[in-house]
């Protein structure tokens, strides 16, 4: 799981240590400082920013099988490395952010793995190239379910351009990370269902 979590609560211990240095943990002023910071941390505990990059480990779903000995250069076409909000739950203040360039790298990893399984070679400088770009990602929360939708664009070196959507839904008890991993796998899976892409791989 590749995630980074930044929460206000992590400052509590540092504040307590600072209070100790300021006048001793048992002094009245130090205790007041420590208790105040602890209370604020509890109140702000939900204000956590999660920065997540999906894993490529979810099993790939079935496709119409093909084989090819062609070589293809896989390229990342997402220029932005900004952190964008993709999930802001209504039940708490935890928010989740995505670097879509990094998410594209994972999509490329999944695509390359599945291409190699079917006899293809991934090589820089290959005469054929496929450029992928994760365009958007959104996770929404319903009454009893959570739903993730990821949009990806693919461009082939022979001029074909297409956009795919990967969706994954599950009960509220599901981990957000598995939810996102599944949606990313599925947007790549959608590309592998496109006969134009398969023709590009095989001809």
Over the alpha carbons, how many angstroms does the gyration radius reach?
A: 23 Å
Instruction: Specify the structural class.
Output: alpha/beta
Low-confidence stretches: 8-16, 37-46
Tally of DSSP helical segments: 5
Percent strand: 25-35%
This entry's quaternary arrangement is single chain
Instruction: Summarize the main sheet.
Output: 5 strands, mixed
Q: What is the CATH homology-level superfamily of the largest domain?
A: Lipoprotein like domain
Spatial strand sequence of the major β-sheet: 6-3-7-8-9
- pLDDT averaged residue by residue: 84
Question: Any idea of the CATH class of the largest domain?
Answer: Alpha Beta
**Shape label:** elongated
CATH architecture of the largest domain: 2-Layer Sandwich
The residue fraction in helices comes out at: 25-40%
The number of domains = 2
Distance between the termini: 37 Å
H/E topology pattern: EHHEEEEHEEEEHH
DSSP strand tally: 9
> Could you name the CATH topology of the largest domain?
Double Stranded RNA Binding Domain
